[in-house]
Amino acid sequence: MTAAHPVTAPPRAPHATGDVGTVVACPGHVDPRRTVGRLRRGAGDPTWATVDGAVWHATRRASGPATLRLTGVPGGVRADAWGPGAADVLADVPGLLGLLDDPTGFAAHLHPAVARAHRTHASLRLARGGDVWSTVVTSVLEQRVVGTDAKASWRRLVARHGDPAPGPAPAGLRVAPPPAAWGALPVWEWRQAGVDAHRADAVRRAAAVAHRLTPDLAPAELGRRLQTVPGIGPWTAAEVTSRALGDPDAVQVGDAHLPHLVGWALTGRRADDAGMLHLLAPWAGHRQRVLVLLEVAYRGAMPAYGPRGRRALPMR
Q1: Does the keyword field hold DNA repair (predicted)?
Q2: Which residues 6+ apart lie within 8 Å of 238 measured at CB?
Q3: Where does 132-214+224-229 sit in CATH, by number?
């Protein structure tokens, strides 16, 4: 993240600092903006904004809603936060920027394609988003539909039912609703947002146990708890642990796109889930890292095998 000009956003002064703030040092070989960008669900995601080089994020913690602003400064990132959850979201910034991601033991050299992707995209790290609940919702919305449709549903539901971001946030920045609000949404709101009953029911069921889906859990335990919810399977669990917890070994089994990507990149042929798991086995502990690198390196280069965008199969 390069140095940026101050954000001009009413109602506070353009140079306003947050309720709490800090400067986080970042090694020169790490690219925080790129790392954080993977958490954004499309350019129109109402929980994210980029204004004059500063990245804004509206989120929620157990302590309440918060707005985070990340601004590049020499040698690192200036983080300012507003709202009841400001202190908690500020504490999560190192993970959000990928600074807690540990690639120790990652043997990129085991395959030329992985080594090339790692060399080309060495600045990329796995972000730990910290907001488990919102990641559950976005992941469920992405089940069985193309990504553009899921992102449109998220955008509409958060814009209509979310809360204005605290502090001097850019216009339109919203905090996604808490679990109770998602659980209480009427049927017609889901339908108008293009969400079928299967996905809506899965979100409602998850909302009832959201208090047990906390960011302090290990990825394996969070994944296990998620999969006790009817309508949430291994694909959704892996999406949540990879994005919310920065799980470096998560694998989205059941994806219509990833097996073909892995097969094509590593062997030149299509693969199914079993084939993907076999090909990824040498990188156990870092399989999500390989998936992310291959997605970034081969985006747009892989032959078209089916519908564009990511699809997840209905899994229970």
Answers
A1: yes
A2: 223, 247, 250, 251, 252, 253, 288
A3: 1.10.340.30
Domain coordinates of the chain in residue numbers?
132-214+224-229
| Interaxial angle between packed helices 147-161 and 132-141, expressed in degrees from 0 to 180 and rounded to the nearest 10 | 130
Q: What is the DSSP string of 2-35?
A: -B-PPP--TTS-TT---SEEEEEE--TT--HHHH
**pLDDT digits 0-9 by tens, 198-240:** 999 999 999 999 999 999 999 999 999 999 999 999 999 999 9
Give CA angle at 189 (188, 191), nearest 5°. Answer: 60
Give the chain's length: 316
pTM higher than 0.85: yes
Q: Per residue in 31-67, pLDDT tens?
A: 777 889 889 999 899 999 999 989 999 999 999 999 9
